[in-house]
Amino acid sequence: MLLLFLLASHASAACTRASLQEATASYLAALSTGKGPTGISALAEGNVTYQENDAVMDISKGVLSVGIKIDFNRSIYDTTECASYTEIVATTGHPYVIGTRLAFNADNKINKIESNVCDTGDWLFNAKGSVDYNKRENWDPIPEAKRDSRAVIKAAGDAYIDAWGDASIRPPFAKDCARLEGGAYISGGNCKLNFPPPFNVTNRRYTIDEELGAVDIFHNFPFLDASIPRDPGTQTNNLIRVEGGQIKYIHENTVCAAKNCGR
Ligand SMILES: *[C@@H]1O[C@H](CO)[C@@H](O)[C@H](O)[C@H]1NC(C)=O
Ligand SMILES: *[C@@H]1O[C@H](CO)[C@@H](O)[C@H](O)[C@H]1NC(C)=O
Ligand SMILES: *[C@@H]1O[C@H](CO)[C@@H](O)[C@H](O)[C@H]1NC(C)=O
Questions:
Q1: What is the full DSSP assignment across the chain?
Q2: How many Å lie between the centroid of ligand 1 and the Cα of residue 202?
Q3: Atom 12 (ligand 2) nearest CA
Q4: In the chain, where does the domain assigned CATH 3.10.450.50 lie?
């Protein structure tokens, strides 16, 4: 037991908030310059796994080669798992909303990049709306004495998603909970969703930041996309801000196979 504990604490000591912030800022710089794999070669393992919308692809064919003018970015940092999550919004040229999870190895090199790349035709996509609503929200660090534990933040995120398939689950929504869904804003505490059964959200990948009270979950989304209503469903990620154990903000990025998921 002791040995396992020592090994575990050694592995998680590899990254710090500062190292994750620095690498994530460099990733954002690479995304804006569009130099493709050479833009991140100093940051990543040579064999970094690159995924867009849950499909492994050639990194040189993805959004890192576009050269995106970023209007807005927000990041969270998981110093336990050594990962970061970043959302960017671009309104000019080809508009995008992109959510990216960077995972780091024990040498602080990125070993996996996964992005949900949303653009015109994806669920409620509206890049201008995404920037405007994002800017109105307050994601300041939570004062240290008021921070929720990692377990509380994760449980709030899971309850939100579990309730989609089980109406008996009551997620801890704040009275003023708001959801930025694509570029549309649902406010006033109306955050609960529920879908027809069978509805089971699988393949959850978490990034959790206690300082910002945030969890991001990449996951499969059954039902919504009319062309892939069952497993695995379409690709989604939800970024959730938790304050005092309650869900305050939700940002959903959902990729659609057909315009607005065929709805
Ligand atoms: C990301 O946002 C911060 C401010 O929140 C800004 O200083 C920085 O330049 C932005 N990065 C990019 C690449 O746009
Ligand atoms: C990727 O490269 C790293 C370092 O070169 C190595 O440790 C790791 O095993 C490689 N992973 C795969 C999947 O080949
Ligand atoms: C949902 O799917 C997961 C993974 O396939 C499985 O472990 C779990 O039992 C399922 N839950 C329900 C309620 O079907």
A1: -HHHHHHHHHHHTT--HHHHHHHHHHHHHHHHHT-THHHHTTTEEEEEEEEETTEE--GGGSGGGT----SEEEEEEETTTTEEEEEEEE-SSS-EEEEEEEEE-TTS-EEEEEEEEE-TTSTT--HHHHHHHHHHS--PPPPGGGPPPHHHHHHHHHHHHHTTT-TT----EEEEEEEEETTEEE-TT------PSS------EEEEETTTTEEEEEEEE-SSSTTS-STT-EEEEEEEEEETTEEEEEEEEE--SSGGGG-
A2: 32
A3: 47
A4: 2-120, 144-262
